[in-house]
Amino acid sequence: MNKITAVTFDLWQTLLLDNREQGQARTLVRLKGTQDALGRFGEDYDQEHLRGASRACYRHCHRIRDDERDISFREQVETFINNISPGLLDRLDQGTLDDILRIYADCFLMYPPAPHADALPVLRALHEMGMRQGMISNTGTTPGTLFRVFLEQHGLLGYFDTLTFSDEVGLAKPSTEIFLITLRSMGVSPAETVHVGDHVVNDVVGAKRSGLKTVWITGFYEREDPSDPESEPDATVSGLGQVVSAISGLTAVSHTQPRHA
Fold first, then answer.
1. Residue 79 shares a structural domain with residue 193
2. What Cα–Cα distance (Å) separates residue 200 from each residue in 10, 77, 128, 139?
3. Which of 1, 21, 208, 247 has the largest CB neighbor count within 10 A?
4. How far apart are CA 51 and CA 199, in angstroms?
5. What is the DSSP code string of the chain?
6. Are 53 and 84 in contact (CB under 8 A)?
7. Domain extent for 215
8. pLDDT tens per residue across span 186-225
């Protein structure tokens, strides 16, 4: 068995913790900011109309991600705008579009999720173990550029050799390719890498299909079929703080596994 030399992490509900209230607050800022920007341009829409456009955009993006792909942040905002009114995007001036792009992104930093209390200790401990570390994240409504700002603000960014965000590469977990391009950037193989995350399909099934070992953080999703070997993680933990010991256990197994002639 290959020696474990690298760890990749999911972001949402793994290294940071979000909740419905924070998400709703960001949505309100996004809708109000868009309403104000369009009003200054001379296009008036009430917030319920804008909310409907936002939901339509969400469904559109969700269908794309169900196909293991993603679109850029700008394309997502443009989709939202054209769901407000067909052809609206073509009518807008650049200043109004820039205002909507800014508020659509910046609401994340206005109502940010909380970094997990164990995020920094875990990343530091794995660094001290000599592990290379990467991140693989589906971005949703927040661009990868803002996640980098967030990680830098909380002293987490410097621990990563590579960060892969779905809006920047056009791929979404559980795509095998989003895992493999991350590992190529890190200079490691799937067999020597462990992926850590909370989502059964995106983080366990996707990583296993790509040849990585997996540590699953419970509490957010359930395995639909506990007897399905494809969704069986190599290690299961109830919290991020247990990840280092889980990886140490997998490392010990990789060191003691007998070789076959």
1. no
2. 12, 28, 28, 17
3. 247
4. 27
5. -PPP-EEEE--BTTTEE--HHHHHHHHHHHHHHHHHHHHHHT----HHHHHHHHHHHHHHHHHHHHTTB---HHHHHHHHHHHHSTTHHHHS-HHHHHHHHHHHHHHHHHSPPEEPTTHHHHHHHHHHTT-EEEEEE--TTS-HHHHHHHHHHTT-GGG-SEEEEHHHHTB-TT-HHHHHHHHHHHT--GGGEEEEES-IIIIIIHHHHTT-EEEEEPSS---S-TT-GGG--SEEESSGGGHHHHHHHHHHHHHHPPP--
6. yes
7. 6-18+114-256
8. 999 999 999 999 999 999 999 999 999 999 999 999 999 9
Tell me if 261 is assigned to some domain: no
φ, ψ for residue 210 (rounded to 5)?
Answer: -90, 0
**Does residue 146 lie within any of the structural domains?**
yes
What CA–CA distance (Å, rounded) separates 177 from 183? Answer: 10
- Percent of the chain at pLDDT above 70? 97
Tens digits of residue pLDDT in 113-133: 999 999 999 999 999 999 999
Predicted model pTM: 0.93
- Expressed in angstroms, the distance from the first to the final Cα of the chain is 13
Classify residue 238: in a domain, yes or no.
Answer: yes
Domain closes at, from 110, 136, 165: 110
pLDDT band at 254 (very low <50, low <70, confident <90, very high): low
Phi and psi (nearest 5°) for 173? -60, 140
